[in-house]
Every structure is written in C-alpha cells, then in structure tokens.
Amino acid sequence: MVGKECGRGPQKQNNDPISIARIGQGWRKDLHEVKDQRFLGPEEFIEEIQGGRQERVSRVYKISLEDMIEAIEGQFKIRRSLVYSFSRNREGALGRSLVAYLGRRWAGYSLRVVADHFGRDPVVISVGVKRLEERLGADRGFSQRVEILEKNLIHNKKIIKVN
Q1: Domain of residue 140, CATH code
Q2: What is the pLDDT of residues 83-108, one digit of tens each?
Q3: pLDDT of 63-73, one tens digit each?
Q4: Which residue from 85, 131, 80, 129 is spatially nearest to 104, judged by alpha carbons?
Q5: Are 99 and 93 in contact (CB under 8 A)?
Q6: CA gap 101, 62 in Å, rounded
Q7: Does residue 87 lie within any of the structural domains?
Q8: In the chain, pLDDT over 90 holds for what percent of residues?
Q9: DSSP assignment, residue 32?
Q10: pTM of the predicted structure, to 2 decimals
Q11: Would residue 20 count as lying in a domain?
Q12: How far apart are CA 134 and CA 14, in angstroms?
C-alpha cells in the first residue's frame, strides 16, 4: 500500500532551488562556528555549568596512572589488585573513579585513556567520576582525604603544561 491507501498521504518532494543549489557546497565553516552560547535550564544547572568552567585547573602535571594508583593505595588503603579487578567491588570502583578524577584534573588524562587502562567502558568510568564528585560535595571528611591525596600526588611533580 502506498500513498493515501496506507493513511500517510502522498510524499511531498522538496524541489526548493536554494536547497538544491547548496547541496554541492558540502561542509561550511561559517555554519559550524559558535556565535552565542546560552544555557537553558534551572538556575542551579547554569551555576553548575559555569562553575565547572572556573574549577578547571590550569596546570597539568607529569603524573602516571601507576603513581596515582600507588597514592590511592596509601591514602585509602585500596589494594592495587582491587583497582585492576574486573569485579564490581565498591572499593575497586572507588579506586578507579579516584584515578579517573585525579588523572583528568591534574594530569590531563581523558576518561577514555583511564578506561582503556583498566579495560573498562568509558561510560562506566564517567558514571563513577560523577558519583565521586557528588560524594565530594556531600561528605566533608571524604573531601578532605581527597584534598590530602591531591597535595601529596602533585608535590614535587613536574608541570608539563600551563593553560
């Protein structure tokens, strides 16, 4: 069945001469430039987005993922084997989330690089980092422990990039 018989009516063809003329132009830079960026949503969302921009650290330190794992092992007493395990153990997930959070914040690692290092999906690592950030905002004691970890981690490390 076609056309009106199936209830949709005849299909309209777009023979607009302007559309047809621009098909051959391909990708145009002027159509992909950001001219004005606005955020839609509640006030809290906008503050979170704009605050996230200001929180970014302008220094990138030369810190390996192994250095981070070692520091987390010392500060949080999470065994290296748990961080690398394929189980969904809470301690292991916390360790991986801490590595991803610290790696992104202080060493410029992408979540994909961290996920590949642990043989995990980047989405799983991203969710873990989001939960970690929520916990940092809600649990002052935990936040202080992470701050101490950060200070110990970047102490005497070489700065490789300043934004």
Answers
A1: 1.10.1750.10
A2: 999 888 899 999 999 999 999 999 99
A3: 999 999 999 99
A4: 129
A5: no
A6: 15
A7: yes
A8: 53
A9: T
A10: 0.64
A11: no
A12: 49
